[in-house]
Amino acid sequence: MIEITKENFETEVVKSDKPVLLDFWATWCGPCQMIAPIIKEIAEENEDIKVGKIDVDKEGELAMNFGIVSIPTLIAIKDGKAVNQAVGLRSKEQILELIK
């Protein structure tokens, strides 16, 4: 898993040769903490997917660029473009469906 910032966004997300799953989260968000182990598991089990976490408190500009209003928000990126999105707690299967 990679911490995504506005500094590394272009390299890690836009120019990624793999699909990217972005997890917009915050330390104070209960559902974000509940989904975190699932996101970690997906990152460890799927080498064909890059998983990035974006802390909305630290990276407000990125959150605004994606129009994030609720967290957790998961966004699937392919070829530098957002292709799918889900808000709230999701199962591992539902999360994988976003990116496949």
How is this structure best described in words?
The chain contains 4 helices and 5 strands, in the order βαβαβαββα. It is 36% helix and 27% strand. The model has no long low-confidence stretch (mean pLDDT 96). The protein is globular.
Summarize the topology.
Layout (H helix, E strand, L loop, with lengths): L1 E2 L5 H6 L5 E6 L4 H16 L4 E6 L4 H6 L7 E6 L2 E7 L4 H8 L1
The total beta strand count reads 5
Uncertain runs are none
What is the spatial order of strands in the main beta sheet? 1-3-2-4-5
Order of helices and strands: EHEHEHEEH
- Determine the mean pLDDT: 96
Entry summary:
The protein has 100 residues and is an alpha/beta fold. It contains four helices and five strands, in the order βαβαβαββα.
Q: Keyphrases for this structure?
A:
5 strands, five-stranded mixed beta sheet, globular, alpha/beta, 100 residues, 4 helices
